[in-house]
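Batch 3, record 17
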Amino acid sequence: MLAANYPQGLLIVISGPSGTGKGTVIKSLIKSLCNSNSHISILPSVTTRSPRTGEREGYSYFFRTKDEFLEMVRKNQLIEWVEYCGNFYGTPREQLENTLKAGLDVILEKDVDGALKIKMAYPDSVIIFIAPPSLKELRRRIESRGTESTDAIEKRLSRALEELEYIREYDYVVVNNSVNETVSAINCIITSEKLKTKRNNGILEKIKR
Amino acid sequence: MLAANYPQGLLIVISGPSGTGKGTVIKSLIKSLCNSNSHISILPSVTTRSPRTGEREGYSYFFRTKDEFLEMVRKNQLIEWVEYCGNFYGTPREQLENTLKAGLDVILEKDVDGALKIKMAYPDSVIIFIAPPSLKELRRRIESRGTESTDAIEKRLSRALEELEYIREYDYVVVNNSVNETVSAINCIITSEKLKTKRNNGILEKIKR
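Prediction for the assembled complex:
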C-alpha cells in the first residue's frame, strides 16, 4: 500500500447486482462530487475491445491489443482483470497509484470479484455494496425494462443472489431506495472516511504548527 | 459487547480540549439529530454532587451518595468514572446497555481517559476527537472569553496539548472550523457508521425475504 503518512486520494469501489440502479447512482455521485469541487478522477480501464466512435485513448479506455494486455497481466501491471463477451478489461496499477498519490479520489465500478481483489491489494480502499431493497423489487426493476426474455431475467436474478452472498465482505452496504438518498449516503461515507484518524496521520503536527 | 446481530443503537463518544467549542457542537448536534427524528437518547451520568435547583433524578443525573457511588464502582456498575472538584462522576453500565439494546443512539461527552475506557469496553462504539484548527486559534478562543487568568489559560493550553497526543487513538478527528460544518461532519460519521456491513448483519435475510 502507499505510505499511510502521505496525503493521498481515497479509492472507492462500488459494486451491486445488475438492476440495482448502480449505474445511475455512480453517474449522479460523480456529478455531485464534481459540483462540490471534490478532487475526483475517473480512471479508465484497460481493454482489448475496439474503440467505438468518439472514444479516446486514456479517456474512455486504455486500448491495448490482446497480446499487450496479456503482457500487462504477466508483468502484474493490472490489479484485477476479467473477460467479458470475448474482450478483456482490467484496472491499471500504475495509473491508479499515480492518481491516488496526486491526492485525487478514484471511484471504480467493479463486480464482486474485482472489488474484493482491489480491497486485497489496497486494504485502505473503501468498498461499497449497493443493494436492492428486496429481491421482489429487483425483479420488478429488471422486468420493467421490458427488454429481456424470461430466461435472461432469471439468469440476472440468480446472478444477483450469488453476488448478494458477498455483502458481508464489503465495508458498507447502501440499500438503493432512491438515487438521491443513495448518492447522499455515499457522499457521507466518503466524507467520514476522510475524517478517520488513520487517514490523518499528520494532523497533530498541523495543529501544533 | 452486546450481540452484534441485534439491531441496536450506536454509541458515540466525543472528546476535545476545552476551548475547542465541543460543548456548542454537541448541543447543536443533539438538536439536529432530534429534528431529523433520529432515535437518540441522552444518558445522564451518575454523580455524588448535590442536585441544583431544577435538576431531576434520572434526567439531569443519577444522584447517589459517595458510599453508593463507591459501591457501584466495586460492583463494576460504572464503565468509567472520574473525580472532579471533590465530586465523582461515572457512566452507568446497565442504563447505557439498556438504551443501546432499545435501539437508541447514545452520545456521550468524555475526556480522553473516559473515551478510551469506553472504547475498550465497547469496541463497536465510535470515538470522535474534536480538534482546534491550531494551538494559536485555541489560545485565541480561550483568551477571548476574557474570564481567566494568564496562569489558568496556560494550564488549559498545556492540558489541551496533552489531550491532542491521544488523537490517533480515536476513530475520527474533526477539526472545528465552524460549528455547522463540524455538526454536519459528525452527522455524516453517524450515518456512515450505520451503513457498515458489520452493523447490518441481518440485511441479506431482509433483502431475500
